[in-house]
Write a structure and sequence with these properties.
Chain lengths: ~325, ~450
């Protein structure tokens, strides 16, 4: 295990070095070109203010600054959003099994099966240890066991940290489900009974690994997608916004910022101050979801009313509750 | 002349008698029922099975593992005994090749049955990713099918030619069919040399291929984090288990063929005694790996693993576990030590227990593990906490077993189950053609 990790690390180092070398040579070439130009238009005297990586404001001569073109290449679903590393922090102290997250997730991903993608577990290790509620969703591991075993590259890892599923490619072997230690993957055992408000043409048009469940496809695997369709719009995942207690923080590890909608905090500080941890760290899956321990938590008992060990997806309303009937 | 005729009469193709016809009809009915169930599964989805998100593999996969395991018999009996020049293998070799071929073909079909989107099967080639154990299976199974087929076919050439010549006048059409498959075999020195070389090469190939096949089968499980699968013992455990189910199945098939075709003269007590010893060796090795798998972890198992072991040893799966372990493994291993139990009839009965044990053993490897995920099973219907194959699964799995038996039955019907060519040569009959060729 240790060996394997080392090997992975060296490989990563090698790739990393290669990447840096490539970048360095491009920069070098750019600098050379710039040098030539620089001699031609020596110092116009104008300066502009910039912020360096430390957060200090520095003044730089305008001619030294070159406008960078934003990557104009079409958005690549398999590559993801450049420069991002999406993470989530789940504060167990604030969870009291309100299940608003689950309902919102089920609704926006049209989850109609018997197994929700976002589950809130009733956890109690032993009789003597304290019970608490633990929401889980796809951990978007950096060493994803599911991606390793997929025979057709239907589930894949992106540069922005997301693990997504191409439901048009999945062959339904369920190996990824066997491989996932977090039991997060859900299978479409039959034709999904989804209902859409928009036309099916629209749904088909919006169909993408970036919006799982849109629509779900029989004989393929579904799971939490970290809502990249929301991130594109600059919005938070559905579970984050739905939670009344601010349990879920979503953000970018590269920017070191996460938010639960009400407060925006430094990821490193949040984890540092609350002794954040990850689930099954010893497996080496390197998850993107962090947990804050359930210290000084909201009363556990209040969540018991909502707890149903045999149901995580509410079934369509009974006829009596049908708004048209009332 | 008379003896040669007798050989062909005993070993050559023979029409189905009443019992044979009934047997064929039964197999065809089971297969038809399975096909209907499978079409229904294609239409409705895997929802017709009892598998769900927790027990995501079930009867189909354990059935697949059984087929893969049993096909290992080609490597062990045909190749190993051939390379070690054990002459007593003769009456078993062809039957072993037939069993292996039938099983590996059915293994390939079974794994497709488990795939929820067989319509996307081409993706396995178009988008193949080499690090997935399933891709390794996609490579090894067709390879093993081809090599097993050739290993059955090449040694068969002289016999096909004998049939061609024998039926030339009495049944010209049948003779033509045999002639087609005999590929103009006429015992020419060049042909014989080429054939012997090819068979030797195939025998050399099938041993590593068989080991790779069983190993990959084990890796399907041990490359996951699952408690009970994540075991470095798994590959040798599967290989030794494959020896058991392979030799067990071979003994059972041989006994039935011997009885129905009245081949007591060709497959004698001596042969059963020998194969009984080989089965005993396989069983004892398997006991050893079972100790590694179930007894040693009792000392160091982590909590999740202890729970898993407890389910098997004294929990929900205790009854099948102990039935399989005692009657399918321990008792057969003990009994086959004694010569008296290696007599054809008793060895046959033991082999039936061994095969049944091997079959349900695979079920016990696949299912209980899946009911012990790392996180507790919550928020799913109560029925998802258990697994028992649905009617569809029984029908479809039954059909795959019937298909394997159908392949075996048909091959036994048309193909000499023991090489007539070899026997004629060994007995120094004037009709033996090898001498003419000077080989």
């Amino acid at each position: 295990m240790e060996n394997q990790k080392n090997e992975k690390d060296t490989r990563r180092k090698f790739l990393n070095n290669g990447w840096k070398l490539g970048l360095a040579s491009i920069l070098g070439a750019g600098a050379l070109a710039h040098l030539k130009d620089g001699f031609a238009s020596e110092g116009s005297g104008e300066t502009i203010e910039l912020m360096d990586t430390e957060g200090n404001i520095i003044e730089v001569e305008a001619s030294q600054v070159e406008e960078m073109m934003e990557s104009t290449g079409a958005h690549n679903v398999r590559r993801g959003m450049p420069g991002r590393k999406f993470v989530m922090v789940i504060d167990l102290a604030r969870c009291q099994n309100a299940l608003a997250c689950q309902r919102s997730c089920n609704k926006h991903h049209f989850v109609t099966g018997d197994n929700a993608w976002l589950k809130v577990y009733k956890m109690q290790e032993t009789e003597d240890t304290a019970p608490h509620w633990m929401p889980t969703l796809c951990m978007h591991c950096d060493q994803p066991a599911c991606v390793t075993v997929c025979p057709v590259d239907a589930t894949f890892k992106r540069e922005d940290g997301l693990v997504l599923i191409d439901n048009d490619r999945c062959v339904g072997c369920r190996f990824c489900m066997a491989a996932c230690p977090y039991s997060t993957r859900v299978f479409n055992w039959s034709e999904p009974k989804q209902e859409f408000e928009m036309s099916m043409d629209m749904v088909e048009q919006m169909h993408s690994p970036e919006h799982a469940g849109m629509p779900s496809i029989k004989g393929t695997v579904d799971k939490c997608d970290f809502c990249p369709h929301q991130a594109v719009k600059g919005e938070l995942p559905h579970c984050v916004t739905a939670c009344p207690n601010g349990v879920f923080y979503f953000g970018d590890k590269n920017e070191d910022v996460v938010t639960n909608g009400n407060e925006t905090v430094r990821l490193s500080k949040l984890l540092e101050e609350n002794a954040g941890y990850r689930l099954f760290e010893d497996l080496g899956t390197d998850p993107s979801v962090y947990y804050l321990p359930p210290r000084d938590r909201l009363p556990f008992e209040e969540g018991l009313d909502n707890y149903d060990p045999y149901q995580s997806v509410e079934k369509p309303d009974e006829p009596a509750e049908n708004p048209e009937a009332s | 002349m008379k003896r040669y005729e007798q050989l062909i009469k005993d070993l050559g193709p023979r029409k189905f008698d009443r019992k044979g016809k009934l047997w064929m009809a039964l197999l065809l009915v089971i297969i038809a029922a399975g096909i209907v169930a499978y079409i229904d599964q294609i239409i409705k989805g895997q929802v017709v099975t009892d598998m769900r998100d927790y027990v995501l593999w079930g009867f189909y996969i354990s059935n697949f593992v059984f087929f893969v395991a049993t096909s290992f018999v080609a490597a062990i009996v045909v190749a190993v005994l051939r390379l070690t020049k054990n002459e007593w293998r003769r009456p078993f070799v062809r039957l072993a090749e037939i069993v292996a071929l039938a099983c590996i073909v059915m293994a390939g079909i079974t794994i497709i049955i488990d795939m929820a989107r067989p319509d996307r099967m081409l993706n396995l080639f178009v988008h193949a990713r080499l690090q997935s154990p399933i891709t390794w299976d996609v490579i090894i199974i067709p390879t093993f099918i081809v090599v097993s087929l050739l290993l059955l076919y090449f040694p068969l050439l002289p016999d096909l030619a004998i049939m061609r010549d024998y039926y030339a006048k009495t049944k010209p059409r049948l003779s033509k069919v045999y002639g087609f498959f005999a590929m103009k075999w006429n015992w020419a020195a060049k042909q014989i040399k080429l054939q012997q070389k090819s068979v030797h090469l195939l025998a050399l190939m099938i041993i590593p291929l068989g080991l790779i096949l069983e190993t990959i089968d084990a890796y399907l499980f041990s490359t996951t984090y699952r408690v009970g699968w994540d075991s470095s013992n798994f590959a040798p455990y599967f290989i030794s288990g494959a020896m058991v189910s392979g030799i067990g199945s071979l003994v059972a098939v041989t006994y039935i063929v011997r009885r129905n075709k009245k081949l007591q003269e060709y497959i004698t007590d001596f042969h059963f005694d020998k194969i009984g010893k080989l089965l005993n060796l396989a069983l004892i090795v398997y006991v050893y790996f079972n100790i590694n798998e179930y007894v040693v972890p009792l000392f160091t198992s982590k909590k999740a693993e202890s729970e898993h072991l407890q389910t098997l040893l004294e929990g929900d799966y205790a009854l099948p576990f102990w039935l399989v372990s005692v009657f399918g493994l321990l008792l057969p291993a003990l009994l086959t030590i004694f010569k008296g139990f290696r007599k054809p009839r008793s060895l046959f009965i033991i082999s039936i227990f061994v095969v049944l044990g091997s079959y349900w053993k695979r079920y016990l490897i696949v299912t209980p593990t899946l009911l012990h995920p790392y996180l507790p099973i919550q928020g799913v219907p109560e029925s998802w906490h258990h697994y028992f194959p649905s009617l569809h699964e029984w029908l479809i799995t039954g059909a795959t077993l019937a298909m394997a038996l159908l392949i075996i039955t048909l091959l036994v019907r048309y193909v000499p189950v023991i090489s007539i060519d070899r026997l004629a040569e060994d007995e120094g009959l004037p009709e033996a053609k090898h001498k003419e060729a000077g080989v």
